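Quarterly update, task 2.4: beta-D-fucofuranose-bound model.
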Amino acid sequence: MKSLNNGRRSAFAILLAVALLALVTGGCRKKEGGASGGGAGGGKMRVGFSQTETDGPWRIAETKSMQDEAAKRGYEMVFTNARGDTATQVSNLEDLVAQRVDAIFLAPREAKGYEGPLQAAKEAGIPVFLIDRELEGPKAGDDYVTFIGSNFIEEGKRAGEWLAKQTQGKAGIIELLGTAGSSVANDRHQGFADAIKSYPDMKIIAAQDGNFTRAQGQNVMQNLIQAHGKTITVVYAHNDEMALGAIQALKAAGMNPGKDVIVLSVDGQKSALEAINAGEMNATVECNPRFGPVAFDTLEKFKRGERLPPKIINQDRFFDKSNAAQFVGEAF
Ligand code: GYE
């Protein structure tokens, strides 16, 4: 049986051939905006981007990176925003398939529930590239081409190992979880829990969903402070926005974030590095949102028929007071 990737590749080969023919018969007009665009009929190649939401610096940086790179390479981008709702994202994807875009970048909000649009894309010969979050069930090289992003288990593990060292294995931890059902929240929890499990005096007192937002992080933290007060010595947040919300809640309760309570999270956004410099936050594991260059490189490799691995993993750094000042200028 012919694999889907081969099927999609041949669809691309046909598209490319048609595009080339159009260029030749059109008198070799120079394509605007760079070498790699060029869809059927000699027009720009149209690439869909299904974004989960646009709130917060991480999503803004990701969206900008994708849009900038599309423009730089001469692609037309069809952008959809699911506004933090999985059902909306499913219908956005169905629309992109109906519009017959040439490829789709999907940043899935949750790990499950996308089988329908993936099947529709497959039938239409539209390759789908996962960026930033993973799916459970669908297979790379079959239901989608490949996943591009960070290793979230590793992020949680790095946070947990750093914390064990900082606290000599003794901590009362509040964990602020990312969006329920997202691969990121599951994995950032898993990696962290694994890293601290051999320390009997490191305990997760409470773990609650803050949906990756500053407002919900602050709100959840406020309630947890009321319930657990001074037993809290650490906040581990699945992203910087929730950590910054928790810092507000701790301050409002007269507690000292960064000092009495260690605050640790993931992302590495500018305001988090500033909070580290100000001594109110302790560390953040980098999770790079600037996907544009690697996403479009991967699409172009696929178009050339190159073999792709099932996952393309970003190399991320770790920021604490030893280097936050050095990197704050380049942060998003
Ligand atoms: O950490 C968070 C965002 O999916 C990796 O989602 C991404 C996460 C990121 O809302 O800030």
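Highlight for this quarter: Residues 20-41 have pLDDT under 50 and may be disordered.
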